[in-house]
Design a protein that fits this description.
By secondary structure, the protein is an alpha+beta fold. It has a single domain (2-255), classed as Deoxyribonuclease I, Chain A (4-Layer Sandwich), CATH 3.60.10. Helices cover 23% and strands 24% of the residues. It has helices at residues 15-25, 44-49, 116-136, 171-182, 188-192, 208-211, and strands at 2-7, 29-33, 53-57, 65-69, 75-78, 92-97, 100-106, 142-147, 186-187, 218-222, 230-235, 251-255. The strands form two sheets. It has a six-stranded mixed sheet with strand order 3-4-2-1-12-11. Strands 5-6-7-8-10-9 form a six-stranded mixed sheet. A hairpin with a 2-residue loop joins strand 6 and strand 7 (100-106).
Length: 261
């Protein structure tokens, strides 16, 4: 079972890229972020023609999340992160696919920091921590994945000294992420590649991709019930080099089917 996450930076603007990538790599389940599309404009038919059933939560101009599957339609659990009934941002959707609960998230950027946007980011992280704890108490296979907008450690960013005041790398942000992981989650990429330089995002400016001046901000967090099934993980870095592509690259994991022996 191959599961991928991809911040597409506008699903309709990047649809040719997304369809090319899906045909090339054929993941079983895909989590998308930053759809930048209202609910009615999501390209459900084009994705269905590519073999993927979808659930999605759109929003005009920004945000938006979706879960696609070619192994049965995702069984939607919720489309909002609990904890703030007044939060209207489309940043979380959760579903069950093949007996695995998958939370697809697009965590707030938080810049400029300090300020109201950073405060919102920290509140959102607090809600995610609370929800994460609730998910773990179920003792079932759970995956939290998406664009976390968190650089966990210095190895996850090119020239970390330039990011010390950025909301993605501030101590408060990293401390909150560490609290989440400490509940019992495992960072899939780092569990398999603890010391390698791996990035998932490269800015469009200053030839960042060509210089490999990137960040690792797209993550897979695995619950203890699913961790033993982890067999592989990686980043489809080459997709970032395609024409009219997103500034993120797809990230993926492969799980052994069913319970490990």
């Amino acid at each position: 079972m191959k599961i991928a996450t991809y911040n597409v930076n506008s699903i309709n603007a990047r649809l040719p890229v997304v369809l090319r990538w899906l045909e090339e790599t054929q993941p079983d389940v895909v989590c998308l972020q930053e759809l930048k599309s209202i609910q009615e404009n999501f390209p459900e038919t084009a994705l269905l023609d590519a073999g993927y059933e979808s659930i999605w939560h759109g929003q005009k101009s920004w945000n938006g999340v979706a879960i696609l599957s070619r192994i049965g339609k995702p069984e939607e659990i919720c489309r909002v992160l609990p904890g703030d009934p007044e939060d209207a941002h489309s940043r979380y959707i959760e579903a069950k696919v093949n007996e695995v609960t998958i939370g697809c998230l697009y965590l707030p950027n938080g810049n400029p920091a300090p300020g109201p946007k950073f405060d919102y980011k920290l509140r959102w992280l607090d809600r995610l921590i609370a929800h994460g704890q609730s998910l773990l108490t179920q003792n079932t296979p759970v995956i939290l994945t998406g664009d976390f907008n968190v650089i966990p450690t210095e190895i996850d960013v090119y020239k970390p000294e330039r990011w010390v005041d950025d909301a993605l790398f501030r101590p408060e942000t990293r401390a909150a992420f560490n609290r989440l992981v400490a509940q019992g989650w495992t960072d899939a990429i780092r569990s398999l590649y603890p010391d390698e330089t791996i990035y998932t995002f490269w800015d469009y400016f200053r030839n960042a991709f060509g210089r490999n001046a990137g960040l690792r901000i797209d993550h897979f967090l695995l619950s203890p019930a699913v961790l033993p099934r982890l067999r592989a993980a990686g980043v489809d870095r080459h997709v970032r080099g395609w024409e009219k592509t997103s500034d993120h690259a797809p990230v993926w994991i492969e799980l052994q089917s069913g319970s490990p022996t």
